[in-house]
Amino acid sequence: MTDQALHDPGMGQKLRSSRNVTERIILVTLLVCGAISIATTLGILWTLGTESLLFFRDPEVTITDFFLTTAWSPQAGSFGIWPLILGTLLITVIALLVAIPIGLCAAIYLSEYASPRVRGFFKPVLEILVGIPTVVFGFFAITFMTPILRGIFGNDVVGFFNVLSAGIVVGILIIPLVSSLSEDALSAVPDSLRQAAYAMGASKLETSLRVVVPAALSGIAAGVVIAMSRAVGETMVVTLAAGASPRNFMFGQESLWDIVNPFVGAQTMTGYIVITASGDLSYNTIDYNSIFAIGLTLFFMTLGLNSLSRRIVKRYRQEYE
Amino acid sequence: MSVEAPERLEIQEHFPTDAEYDKLLGKKNRKGLIAKMFFMAALATAVLALAALLYTIVNESFGLVAQVNQNEPEDIVASFGYDPSTTALADLSYDELVESLGGGISTNVGRRLEREQRFYADKLVFESDELWAEICSSDEPPAGCDSSPRDHAGVLQLVNERIVQPDIIAAANLVPSLLDPQAFEEDVEVTFANTPERFPDYTFDQVQFQWRAWLNPTFLVTPQSTAPETTGIRTAILGTLWLVIITITFAVPVGVGAAIYLEEFARPSRFNDFVQTNINNLAGVPSIIYGMLGLAIFVRALEALTSGAIFGIEQANGRTVLSAGLTMGLLTLPVVIISSQEALRAVPNSLRQAGLGVGATKWQTVRSQVLPVAIPGILTGVILALARAIGETAPLILVGAASFITADPTGPFSKFTALPIQIFQWTALPQFEWQHLAAAASLTLLILLLILNAGAVILRNRYSRRPQ
Amino acid sequence: MTNETTKDLVDVSSHEGPVETPSAQPPALPDDKTAVATEPAVERDGVIQTQNMDIYYGSFKAVHDVNLNFQFNEISALIGPSGCGKSTVLRSLNRMNDLIPTARTEGVVTYHGENIYAPGVDPVAVRRRIGMVFQKPNPFPKSIYQNIIWGAKINGFKGSKAEADDLVENALQQAAIWDEVKDKLQESGLSLSGGQQQRLCIARAIATQPDVVLMDEPCSALDPIATLRIEELMLELKQNYSIIIVTHNMQQAARVSDKTAFFNIELSNEGQRTGELVEFTPTDQLFTAPKEKATEDYITGRFG
What we know:
The structure holds three protein chains of three kinds. Chain A is an all-alpha fold. Chain A is built from 15 helices and two strands. Chain A folds into two domains: about 55 residues; about 250 residues, MetI-like (MetI-like fold). Chain A has a two-stranded antiparallel ribbon with strand order 1-2. Chain C is of the alpha/beta class. In chain C, a hairpin with a 2-residue loop joins β1 and β2.
């Protein structure tokens, strides 16, 4: 037996098949698909960035004005962003005041008290709220919520456009975010902790509130931050229900109540963008560019909140182990 | 083992006595019960809010209306010899409808209508043939020269709009209509008696009270019109449909491809981590930002492409359904990627190893072993992402959805409107009729979403029960 | 961590105790105990007694007709093959089975003479007097201090801060862990090693002033050195508490317990596997001259 019979000189070729070329093409195609996502982010930053730059280059506008003045009246040439941020914040705060108690308590009930059947029924029911388009919520705000508020507080107190109605409805729409993420966090708390608490003579309430909820706090907090981010980016409800008048203010000239009054309307960042874009909008006007500046601010706000939420989860994840 | 145990601390005095403990336990139990009620109430509140929303929509979609017709539909039906009690206006044939239309409008109006859109492909109704040929060969021919002829629903709408001319002067919601229909009629009567200037053109005798389903089959197939009584959402539904097609065409291949890359091919590296984080971030960006991106890139920068100018379409701008579809595609892309990733992750590794073990390449393994198993999960994710996209309004506004168009979209370069846009427009209008129409459109949208979500759930259940 | 191990190593080498033997032989007894089979003529009532106790999960009978009498200041061990219901029996002694929706206990379980399953008895009140330590150490994700004081507080402890500090120190002393944690009371309970966490859990159970401590396989998640520490601790604690432990480790039962209950699985006519108490005898007797053949088969390794 010679060596030649054992070695196949063509083996090297056989192991390197021509299929590798196809593989490569496929790989590149797939890579391009993945890269499109990066292109999207770059596109967002580029678009918002360049148009904002045009906005700030306009002689009517200065960056200091944008971030430091407190009146937003484009017709009058005032471009301080704070009134719009104020509108967004007012609505977000009201929404969180609605969604956090309801969402968290519902989550506690589903996780700690309800039987699996009850939980299996109500969890999907709450998810339905997520699936309803926000424009329908806007309709609900105008048709149901605003009239009720005006009926309770009086037509002269509550305007047709008001922040309270929009805030409550946005709150309703983010309840599932809070409840679902909180419930996941609560369920993830190991049962052994509950057993330890019960074994010491704790009641169900004490166990739930003083052992389980603190243990799940990071997950709950992350859920709240996500809900907040959603409320900040919400557009249709606030456009329909909160109106198109920015709440301009001057420090020292208005009372605190005038600034935070929920019974009248206040335009939000998103509301301004929509109203401006749906009107007659010609490119390269200051109005057109202004929406991108607002959009850029909005983008960074939501990006910051989402990153915060992820950081909370990562940092405090080693809770029980 | 022989160490003395430390003294057991006799601090019983700081612990409650048995009697005190009983009281403490009683208090604990009471507090526990109140807390449980409170938590349940929170859940109930959330469910009630949902119920209130659904109630509001259904309540406004049906009810009694007080209506005055210029010409009664029954008269028109009777004029053709049919029995009005068994035959409705909608049952008339196309020719009959055209005939009755012609009988009730001036020739000028008829010509104008015909120039917008013809009634027949082979003959003209209001125009003479020579004049028509002349107009169509001029520099700016009207739309009717090229477009397809009207259909039954469209002409029915014209007959309603121009001949019947219904005017709804008051409307009631579903629940009041069911509980106390008399009250509605009396209200209208009282209004006529006390403030007749509110309805200057009519007297109370002319008013008909009838039941109206603002959401009805005719509503779904009728194009838009300026009169709330005769408008329909066909244009919007078709627009939404076109959007769905374009979104899927773009987002599914790219999204599934990216997911396959990330899950099957990518090695853990800083770049791939960055891509993943980026995708997660994109999923959380508000939809209005995508709208702005679409506006700047698709509508403006790529106007030549999206308006169809490249393909020779004239008088075009970038506010087409193609721009909107691509924008929505970008919007749904992160969600499609993430859910496809999850579907791929759920495929057991043993399948991959089996494929590779017989000498198949990575791609062959993925294509023939992994993908088929993951497809139901991917499909479910796509359907759910689509359901979310259908309800999005803000990006469409930014990208230039038209607020009022009557022509159905015919291709990717058409102007368009969509269901959520209609809801938005109609909600913002002050007249009460539009509120009912907004409710009807919302109900349509919700039903559509229900079907989609149910489909996804059924799909998921059917395929998760399959033995692996 | 190093301190603990070297200390234990030193202890082990000078330890006069049983040596691990192959399972074919019954476990060797400590030198200072003699295998005399004596039984008290009349047994006085113990701190916990069960009479004709049956435990069901739904329609499945998990445990049948258990009669036990646990004495004060003794360590009693429950042993038996896996699935024989010994953990179920243990958890019925402080009504922890109530947490399982389908569980049902019939019969009488008395604590200091009172039936804890009588209608109107609140399980929360039962559990404050009977502490429990679990198989896997489960300290709360709170500070060490908080872990100890929490149980006392919810049971109505009303002392000043200084008195609370005393309570915490005392509990940690009794659990033989005070020296190791006295400088880091504010650190998380999870920062301790497995064995330390379990001793923390024992301290936590003791802090509510029970007089019975139930332990459900307390050492099965620990390494042998930590196990030894806990066993030493049990022997110290028995002076002030009555301890009932479930263990699947026969040698452990032989090392620490005064009396041992052997449970076995009976196959009913319908094919149900129900646990039954075979015998409950002083440990030395059970391991040298068991009354029942089934016991002897188990401890000699013929099954289980």
